[in-house]
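Hi team,

Filling in the usual template for the complex we talked about on Friday. All components are listed, including any nucleic acid strands or ligand strings, so the model treats them as one assembly.

SUBMITTER: L.P.
PURPOSE: interface mapping
COMPONENTS: three
RESIDUES: 558
SEQUENCES:
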Amino acid sequence: MTPSRVAFAAILAKDLRSELRTLQSLPAMALFAVTAFIIFRFGLDRTSLSGSLASGVLWATLLFAAVLGINRLFVAEREEGGFDAIRLAPIDRSVLFGAKAAALIVYLVALELVAVPIFAIFFLDSATALGPLVAVLLLADLGLAVVGTLISSMAVNSRARDLLVPLVLLPLVVPLMIAASGATEPLLALGGPGYHRFGTWLMVLGLYDLIFALVGWAVFDFLLED
Amino acid sequence: MYGKGLKPLSIATVVAFAVGFSLVFFYAPLDADQGFIQKIFYLHVPLASTALIGFVVGGIFAILHLRTDNNKWDAYSYVAIHISVIFGVGVLITGAIWAKASWGHWWVWDEPTLVSFLIVFLLYCTYYPFRYAIEDRDRQARYASVFAVTAGAFVPLNFLAVRMAQQLVHPRVFATSEGGLPGSMLLTFLVCFVAVALLWVTLVKFELTAKSASGQVNRLRRALDAPGPTGSSRIAPEVS
Amino acid sequence: MLAAFLPLGAPALPLDEAGKYVAGAYIVFVLLLVIYVGIMATKLQRIEKELREVASVAEQRAAESQAAPRRGPEGSSISDSLTPQGSRGGGA
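RESULT (copied from the run log):
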């Protein structure tokens, strides 16, 4: 039996290499985010944002950009028989869940490396909030990745794949968004970063990540049955 | 045999409602702050609690389905969620009526319980298109169970997050002001809760019986090789 | 604990106005229940119709299998048990 770490690393490496070569998700996600910022600038008729408005624009944009990537996460597996390969391989099937979620985290971090600085340049007065924001981003990415992988793996086998992911995913990530923007709003406040209930919101994010990682890990086996 | 026990169950439900509603309007005292409006709560809160418990029960049936691979659990899970969604519609409408009476608006974002419930309700509404999108029957049942389990885990998390979000603006005044409900109100509430819970069980059993009857007809049709529409839904699991 | 479900201080409406809202809420509940019963009634009608069809197919089969090999007495017990009983089964 191949040890899980080896399988995990192999699948993750394959995914990242494939994305690097084809570049099908990342540029689209990044472009979408930047365009969305521009739409918000004109839709809200604001050139500078702070507090809850800044937090809302940032998180809504990141979430919708993430959906683009989540839609495409399992397409290669579906079209090229990757699911069958996993079924046949002597590995724990939940490893696919872990590896795919890890790949998605990498995509989300890459997206944020582009989108967040641009957001700061477009709308923020100072960059001091960006440091602590990293913690919020990472925890939110983890939650988004596990839930996104779970939903994506089910949606890829259905008819209305591109509709299903946003439909089912968005209600599920509402608590994540509540916690993420709850932590971000004081960070982006007009006077300077505040940390009102910062720790509490991070804990809620952590709880969300933990629960859905466990649920995803536990049920993924059933998704791969024939 | 799903229909067995449906009659005593329905009778119990009717009796519970008769007693409960009588208590609401003839026994429970008028609330000092809310006045007569408070009477809506004897309907709204039991509907909400039952619906939420129903969603969790749907998740439990889903776990059983995944573990035993017996499709009857999938049918139970589907019906539990289906009836809870219907109760959810009642929760949101009675909640809106109460909001209008209390605050003057049909919807308020200040009530964390109502907002959380809306999010949960929306999630479970996606259960139907989700099932519909998956064509293979066995896969549909399995994925639906995964959905029900994930959504069941989601319910408490969601309530926690929304409640915390509200606390930023409105501190929870009522958590400590009254010690609790006066005994007469509590009794009325409990009876109404029992009545609504019984109604939920009755309707679930009723729905399963109807499905079972339909399944038996299909079974008969197959045995006789008779032509004709099987009339089976694309998403509702068959019971036989 | 249950008091937490009560909304924050809103002045109580006068009884006649409040009564309409409370009545509205309870009426909505009853309506939902009745609508559900109506939908289930439609399902029941469909089941009845299908059973009738299947019954007639079964009768037909039984009649065919009797007519060919045996020339027995008409109206045998098999077709009797499949025929809906008198006025109870027939009619709208």
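MY TAKE: The two ends of chain B are 10 Å apart (CA to CA). Residues 48 and 105 of chain B are 20 Å apart (CA to CA).

Thanks, L.
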